[in-house]
Amino acid sequence: MPNQSIAPRRATVFARARMSASALTVATLVAACAIPTHPDSSAPPSDPFNPAATQLLDDTNWQLAEWKHADGTTRALPQADNGTDGEALTLDFSTAGGQRRVSGFSGCNRYMGSYTLKNGGLSFGPLASTRKACPSAAGDLERAYLDGLAHVAKSGVQMKPPQQLQIVLESGDTLIFSHPRGQ
């Protein structure tokens, strides 16, 4: 008789062991179906001054959002969307016709010329502009802007949000451009 009481206990132990193994198998399968996280998903944005990033400038349009002086102060800029008559300064890169051309608005006049991307650097060829008479503040801004584009020390492009183009001038000033709305 003692053997009869051991058999049901063994069956219960085996049944529990099978249930535990089944639960472990189900838990493993559920964990395996979870969406994996890419190891770089939490990485900081790439360095915008990486020389390869300048190649992203071809066929892009930018609007000057901020002008930081070397001492950390900012220069006042006209903004097209702040309710004033001002128009934002722009920088438009184009490769139409197989040539790298730049154009835009410089505060009072339109300008155009060529640009070069070489060894990770951005430089502008001679820039021509229309000759509209400018009020003194707009004329001062325009002269400083066009002179700055002629003296670029380094540039950086960040295409991840927030998309920015940074141009550091030889004077130490930094021009920060963003994509205009709707692009």
How would the blueprint of this fold be written?
Blueprint: H1 2-32, E1 61-68, E2 90-94, E3 101-105, E4 110-118, E5 121-124, E6 128-129, H2 136-149, E7 152-158, E8 164-169, E9 174-178
Antiparallel strand pairs: 1-2, 1-9, 2-3, 3-4, 4-5, 4-6, 7-8, 8-9
Tell me what you see in this structure:
The protein is an alpha+beta fold and 183 residues long. The protein is built from two helices and nine strands, in the order αββββββαβββ. It has a domain at 51-178: Lipocalin (Beta Barrel), CATH 2.40.128.270. The protein has helices at residues 2-32, 136-149; strands spanning 61-68, 90-94, 101-105, 110-118, 121-124, 128-129, 152-158, 164-169, 174-178. Strand 7 and strand 8 (164-169) form a beta hairpin. Residues 23-39 have low confidence and may be disordered.
Using the alpha-carbon principal axes, give the shape.
globular
List the uncertain runs.
23-39
CATH architecture of one domain: Beta Barrel
Query: What is the residue-mean pLDDT, rounded to a whole number?
Result: 79
Q: Summarize the amount of helix as a percent range.
A: 10-25%
Q: Kindly state the number of beta strands.
A: 9
Rg (C-alpha, Å): 31 Å
CATH class category label of one domain: Mainly Beta
